[in-house]
Amino acid sequence: MPPGVVHLQLTTQIFMKNILLLFFLLCVYGLTGQSVTEMEAQLKEATTASEKLGLKYQIASLLINKDRDKAEDYAKDAFNLAKDKRDTGMQTQVSFLLGRIYEKKRNNRNAKVWFESSLNYAKADKNVDYIIKNVEKISNIYTKDRNYREAYNVAEDAFQYFSTTGQSVSEMRSNYDVQKAKITRQERELLKQKEQLEKQIALLEGDREKLSRKNSTLSRKTKELQEENVQIQDEKSMVEEQKMLIEEENERQRGRISSLTKSQLEAELEKEQLENKNLKIEQLQQESEMKLAAAEIENERNKLYFYGLLGLAGLLILTAVLLYARYRSKKKSATELKEKNTLIENERKRSDELLLNILPEPIAAELKENGSAKAKKYSDTTVLFTDFINFTAIAEKLTPEQLVDELDNCFKAFDFIISQYPDIEKIKTIGDAYMAASGLTERRTLPTNMVKAALEMQQFLDEVKAERRARGLPYFEARIGLHTGPVVAGVVGINKFAYDIWGDTVNIAARMESNCEAGKVNVSETTKNLVQYQFETTYRGKIRAKNKGEVDMYYVAEKLGS
């Protein structure tokens, strides 16, 4: 088989394959970088419920800060589609999105309804992230309305859910470590795939150079055929000149014939006819040979043009394929790395939040940066102590499980109350005693928020007391004592480290608590002088404190002007 035909077949196969790849590249490129208008146009052409659900959710997410009414319509349509499909995961996400839309529109009532709906779907789907997000949103709405009891109930319900499903902080941290190791392995595999793709790109670059050299060869042959065509045209001109000479000879012969006798004329005529016949035969042969040569030249020229076009198209398609392969590889690697980095960042944030639940923010930052935290002295710290009255007697009336549940409910409520005040830190619990402090910063602070928190704790216990008394059940009553002064704070321990405070201020606060009555908040004169213009106080007398002599005590009744 001639080399030209073999090359034509190979080039045609490459051409067809690369045309398909180029078409795929154009389709993929057209789907990236879509705006809301483009996505709405695509939504009109969508045929499946899954496509419509995904597009409407994305459009609503993009419009949440631009056109909230339109975003609400798209989100509700998406929710109905997810509901029809019974897709619990998408119902969770779309319900949360609707809650955010109503939150942006300052419609807290509808926002709470959708956040609660999303919370229920998240529990059914066991989606921990959305459970935490919805609990935080609902709790914030109740807190803005100063409905602390309902906010606490929401947090308590989430805690009970995690306790029932077996989700714990240690388990989440373990899952994070396993996920991080898995991501590290996947990153190594991606790097290997990237190296393999780079090798394939290098091979394709070599093929492109080979095609370039073949294209140069085809260009050279094209030039040679053009030169041959010029030569044939010259030969054709020479044939035309010969025909003109023959015509002149025929004219001359006709003049000579007119002067001959009849017999001579007949002889000459026969001779002339024989010569003309031979001449025509030669002319026909020459014309046939010329036509055949011209046809062959035209055929070669058409083949040459066809091969040249195929080679050029193949080179362009190969270049496009190389660029597409490189683009897809980089995009895929970047997307996967971005997803993994986002996952790692989310887990890191969770770890930071867990650390902040144990330590104050400045101490946690110092511990992460240096691996240890230095002890510091603070001059204006307010210490709070609580203790339940007749705890032992009440404990004898309850089962161990009931006792722990009641104590846990109270301490969770205390945690929630102090979380509303950024300057208050929970220090620890000791049996049925609860300890917190404010002013553990470099700047000077007043104990106003600490007194508010103490009064809210007693208010919470009064509500629980009324409920349990109506049901004939035992209840807790607490004493609360406060004192303001200097303390030393620091982190102690290695494996199970703890943040604690020391000093006479802690001892005096404990003395304030032990000399308090049930349901009251007892403060020292130092604390009273700092809040006397915000709260109504009642003088109680003096008590003796170690290393301080006698200290005046005051009950805090209520906030002035309330």
Structure explained in plain terms:
The protein has three domains: 34-167, Tetratricopeptide repeat domain (Serine Threonine Protein Phosphatase 5, Tetratricopeptide repeat); 186-355; 361-559, 2-Layer Sandwich (Alpha-Beta Plaits). Helix content is 72%, strand content 13%. The protein has helices at 3-30, 36-45, 49-63, 68-85, 88-104, 108-125, 128-144, 148-165, 169-257, 262-358, 361-370, 391-397, 400-419, 448-470, 504-514, 525-531; strands at 376-388, 424-430, 433-438, 478-492, 498-502, 521-524, 535-545, 549-559. β4 (478-492) and β5 form a beta hairpin. α4 (68-85) packs antiparallel against α5 and α6 (108-125) runs antiparallel to α7 (128-144). It is rod-shaped, with a radius of gyration of 47 Å. The protein starts with a helix and ends with a strand.
SSE order and pairing:
Layout (H helix, E strand, L loop, with lengths): L2 H28 L5 H10 L3 H15 L4 H18 L2 H17 L3 H18 L2 H17 L3 H18 L3 H89 L4 H97 L2 H10 L5 E13 L2 H7 L2 H20 L4 E7 L2 E6 L9 H23 L7 E15 L5 E5 L1 H11 L6 E4 H7 L3 E11 L3 E11 L3
Parallel strand pairs: 4-6
Antiparallel strand pairs: 1-3, 1-4, 2-3, 4-5, 6-8, 7-8
